[in-house]
Amino acid sequence: MRAPASPPSPDYRRWRRASLVEGGTLLLLVGVAVPLKHAAGDARLVGVLGPVHGLAFVYYLWVLAGVMRPGEWRWTEVLRAVVAAAIPLGNLANVHLFRRKLCAPPRPGEAR
Asked: In three state form, how does the secondary structure of 82-100 look?
């Protein structure tokens, strides 16, 4: 029998929300606004969603910087988190990594 899963940490929930907002705006931009711009010649939606996605990406990077603790994250993991944000649905590849890193109980003598 498996042990009950620990509840997600506030850092994990914050990262998850930021990644959903960033990923959702990227999907809307790439999947709806850009095709509409090229198919119908209407760039208005790109003009709206472009800046919204830009703000969502900056917010994602800000949250990422806040949840990653020095010494716990390798540079390859940081790079993976940033690159995944540039790929539609890419943050889904990081769910396991972030759950493992952010929801693990603190080591003895370590404050969170």
From this structure: HHHHCCCCHHHHHHHHHHH
Measured CA to CA, the distance from residue 92 to residue 105 in angstroms comes to 23
Question: pTM of the entire structure?
Answer: 0.81
Q: Tokens 């931009």: give the residue.
A: 29
Q: What's the pLDDT tens digit per position in 5-38?
A: 566 788 888 998 999 999 999 999 999 999 999 9
CA distance 29 to 96: 26
Residue 12's H or E segment, with its range, is helix 10-28
Angstrom distance (rounded) from CA 37 to CA 12: 36
According to DSSP, residue 104 is labeled S
Place of tokens 């998850």: 16
